[in-house]
Write a structure and sequence with these properties.
This protein is an all-alpha fold. It has a single domain, classed as Glycosyltransferase, CATH 1.50.10. Helix content is 64%, strand content 2%. It contains seven helices and two strands; from the N terminus they run H-H-H-H-H-H-H-E-E. A two-stranded antiparallel ribbon has the order 1-2. The longest helix is centred in the middle third of the chain and has 43 residues. The chain is elongated.
């Protein structure tokens, strides 16, 4: 995404929640690494945890930059058009996934000691008597950080609900395949809510996780019906009559190009 910014001209009005998709995969991979570490032997488990923390740091750093740009877009310009309005839910995804991953990585470090009898840190750095305190200290700090990231995700979730509700009051919002973008953020939001409920022993979080999970199931079923019906009707993949394309040789056209030229759509003078 950073390289794309260097070779293309971007304006604030073109910023959308889709920008989060390439980076959220890094956070998802880091979270998955913590789960894989739970079933690995000592050596590979430590490597998996270390790499996962590195990826989590890289992903979160870039996500925070992108959130600043996206929030500025929402604050200074109009909300996204109806076709892209569901993208306002996408910032919830990295927040919820990072909340889950940070806490589960700490649990993996603790499990490394309880199940394998090994410390995540070298014996020359920390004594055996201090390992117990260190592991639970990391778990406690990670739980607070996870809770803070959950709160950030809840902010984006509430903002997305208000933005979509505001649009529905003044404009129709026809279904498109982009609506599937709500399932992952809400799904992982429910997952991290459930994990926080278990770690904090909070009945409120446990009940909220059930509510979110049921909402995800209902949304998934609704998206499936809304997708399959036009598929069987032969309407989903048929381009509209006013569909416009861009051909590098003629510019905007109603005819889909049959080939793609090698020339770029910009000059180097436009980059500076």
């Amino acid at each position: 995404m950073g390289f794309t910014t260097l070779i293309n001209i971007h304006e604030l009005k073109t910023v959308s929640g889709v920008w989060f998709l390439p980076i959220v995969s890094v956070i998802v991979t880091a979270s998955a690494g913590s789960i894989v570490a739970d079933v690995l032997p000592e050596g590979p488990a430590k490597i998996s945890i270390i790499v996962s923390y590195m990826m989590m740091g890289a992903g979160l750093s870039i996500i925070f930059f992108q959130m600043s740009i996206y929030y500025a877009r929402l604050a200074f310009l109009k909300i996204p058009p109806a076709k892209l309005i569901i993208s306002v839910f996408l910032p919830l995804g990295p927040c919820a996934q990072a909340s889950f991953g940070v806490l589960h990585l700490a649990m993996s470090i603790n499990k490394l000691r309880t199940d394998l009898g090994q410390s995540f840190f070298a014996p020359s750095v920390i004594s055996e008597d201090e390992i117990y305190i260190m592991d639970y200290g990391i778990l406690g700090a990670s739980a607070l950080l996870s809770l803070a990231l959950w709160g950030l995700g809840f902010f984006w979730f509430a903002l997305a609900l208000f933005v979509v509700a505001d649009l529905l009051l003044v404009s129709p919002c026809p279904f498109n395949l982009g609506w599937w973008g709500t399932t992952f953020p809400l799904g992982v939001f429910g997952l991290t809510t459930m994990q926080l409920g278990q770690v904090l022993d909070s009945g409120s979080f446990k009940v909220l996780s059930v509510v979110i999970t049921l909402a995800v199931i209902v949304i998934w079923l609704a998206m499936s019906v809304a997708t399959l019906v036009p598929v069987f009707q032969g309407k989903l993949y048929v381009p509209r009559a006013n569909q416009s394309f861009y051909d590098t040789s003629v510019g905007d056209t109603d005819v889909a190009p049959t080939t793609t030229g090698h020339e770029r759509m910009y000059t180097y003078d436009q980059c500076f």
